[in-house]
């Protein structure tokens, strides 16, 4: 990753000093992001604590911020509608989305993405490490995929799909900050695609896999295009209207229609689920609570979910804000922002993460920045209308810990980015390869379980025999070479799986061993390379 040298960093640091307002928003953003990265959700105490801290920081930031008439109007309208949607629907999703949006006044996008990259990458890597070591396996689902029952691991997240979507969010943070072009950028994209395959091996999320590929293809396409044509600009601005039309109108097509049948099958019955809510429930102004007899009924389409759950008023205003944001991004040729925004809006057709409490829709940062920092629909924008005090605009001291940490992180990224092109790191690569080979060999020696027994409640529908096991039966199964997972008592029915299910899980164990040992090898090799470099410097053989 190309990063400026130390002198340029100091200059950049002086020009980009954090203000109190920015710091408060970054604390809010990092706390909320950390809570979702850990897999916590509404109703859990850790999440509620993070929400309380985040809301406190954001509330203080809003009070200390000075607004023009338009900015105050935009923040007030979305803020009120966010609270109304929460009170009417009992869902905090739109409230958290609005919080991310209205707090962007006087906050730089790059600062938010720098903090997001550090927080999300740290927590994401922790989740994977915890799984590979065995600290926290997370939720297990057994679904029938590609003609066989396969384990789907969530890595501590609420669902395997959420795990894969989290990888896309990580890429969005990293590729937004990435400054490399041409062949180097292509190399990073290839590395991200390899990561996509590895994540898919565990999540078996076709939606997440396709979303990742689509986002990376957008990044590559925007890089290859030196200049957009008028037709391309029009097409980019049509993504949202077309997505809305498909989401809200396609489910209303008669089920006998071939197009409906094909799309419903392709989207795993999501069209039929959307049709139920659009035809059987009323569209309200400010949101509603659903009393569903069937718990399997859910809205995986973000647009249908937002419209039906939070009401028409906030939904329409938010879509209008998105449209003008995209229009502005196209006008200013901001390709990184467009790749994220368009990719996420397309993904929203089959995934609910855009407007629920997942806090993963980082495209809202661009919407908030446009509405509160760039849009000028009201004249005399230079007139501050309200501001309790000027404390929020004050810059933090030059020796503030936050700025020191930022400088160290940027310098660290520079060293990592430069490492790929330095011969001294060949030893690190060789050590990593040797470790991978050793880890793979170790994985091959692991004994393959005879069968797996798992609770029926986490499995897809199956006509196979049901087993009830007491403690003695569980011990006997394990002694005979079978694995009993998530045992919850003798009254809980269990399914037995063998064949492809066992083989796939054994192969995952081998891959996990290779990944874990490879990472250790890379760290060890890097350390050796650094020691050798220092030795050369001392002996005068290395300049």
TrEMBL record:
- Coiled coil location: none
| Membrane-spanning intervals of the chain | 16-34, 70-90, 111-135, 161-178, 185-202, 208-224, 234-253, 303-326, 425-446, 510-532
Which keywords label this protein?
Membrane, Transmembrane, Transmembrane helix
**Membrane among the record's keywords?**
yes
The answer to keyword Transmembrane applying to this record is yes
Q: What is this protein called?
A: Uncharacterized protein
Task: Specify the species.
Answer: Gallintestinimicrobium propionicum
């Amino acid at each position: 990753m190309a990063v400026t040298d130390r002198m340029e960093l100091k200059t950049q640091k002086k020009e980009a000093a954090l203000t109190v307002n920015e710091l408060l928003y970054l604390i809010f953003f990092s706390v909320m992001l950390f809570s979702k990265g850990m897999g916590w959700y509404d109703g859990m105490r850790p999440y509620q604590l993070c929400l309380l801290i985040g809301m406190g920081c954001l509330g203080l930031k809003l009070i200390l911020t000075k607004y023009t008439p338009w900015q105050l109007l935009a923040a007030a309208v979305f803020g009120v509608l966010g609270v109304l949607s929460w009170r009417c629907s009992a869902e905090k999703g739109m409230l958290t989305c609005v919080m991310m949006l209205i707090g962007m006044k006087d906050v730089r996008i790059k600062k938010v993405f720098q903090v997001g990259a550090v927080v999300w990458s740290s927590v994401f890597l922790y989740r994977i490490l915890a799984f590979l070591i065995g600290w926290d396996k997370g939720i297990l689902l057994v679904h029938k995929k590609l003609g066989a029952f396969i384990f789907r691991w969530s890595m501590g997240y609420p669902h395997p799909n959420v795990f894969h979507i989290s990888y896309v969010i990580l890429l969005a943070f990293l590729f937004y900050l990435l400054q490399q072009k041409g062949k180097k950028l292509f190399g990073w994209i290839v590395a991200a695609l390899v990561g996509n395959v590895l994540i898919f091996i565990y999540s078996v999320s076709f939606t997440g896999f396709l979303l990742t590929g689509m986002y990376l293809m957008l990044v590559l396409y925007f890089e290859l295009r030196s200049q957009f044509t008028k037709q391309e600009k029009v097409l980019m601005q049509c993504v949202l209207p077309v997505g809305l039309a498909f989401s809200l109108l396609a489910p209303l097509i008669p089920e006998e229609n071939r197009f409906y049948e094909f799309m419903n099958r392709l989207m795993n019955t999501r069209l039929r689920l959307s049709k139920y809510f659009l035809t059987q429930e009323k569209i309200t102004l400010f949101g509603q609570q659903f009393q569903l007899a069937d718990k399997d009924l859910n809205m995986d389409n973000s647009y249908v979910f937002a419209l039906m759950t939070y009401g028409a008023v906030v939904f329409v205003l938010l879509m209008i804000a998105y449209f003008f944001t995209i229009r502005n991004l196209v006008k200013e040729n901001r390709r990184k922002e467009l790749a994220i925004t368009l990719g996420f809006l397309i993904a929203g057709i089959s995934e609910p993460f855009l407007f629920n409490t997942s806090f993963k829709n980082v495209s809202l940062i661009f919407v908030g920045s446009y509405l509160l920092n760039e849009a000028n629909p009201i004249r005399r924008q230079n007139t501050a209308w309200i501001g309790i005090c000027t404390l929020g605009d004050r810059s933090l001291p030059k020796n503030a810990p936050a700025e020191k940490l930022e400088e160290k992180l940027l310098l660290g990224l520079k060293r990592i980015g430069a490492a790929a092109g330095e011969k001294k790191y060949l030893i690190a690569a060789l050590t990593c390869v040797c470790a991978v080979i050793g880890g793979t060999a170790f994985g091959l020696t692991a004994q393959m379980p005879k069968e797996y027994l798992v609770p029926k409640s986490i499995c897809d529908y199956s006509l196979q025999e049901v087993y009830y096991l007491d403690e003695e039966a569980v011990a006997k199964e394990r002694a005979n070479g079978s694995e009993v997972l998530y045992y919850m008592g003798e009254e809980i029915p269990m399914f037995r799986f063998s064949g492809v299910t066992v083989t796939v899980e054994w192969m995952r164990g081998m891959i996990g061993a290779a990944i874990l040992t490879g990472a250790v090898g890379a760290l060890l090799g890097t350390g050796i390379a650094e020691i050798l470099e220092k030795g050369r410097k001392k002996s005068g053989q290395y300049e």
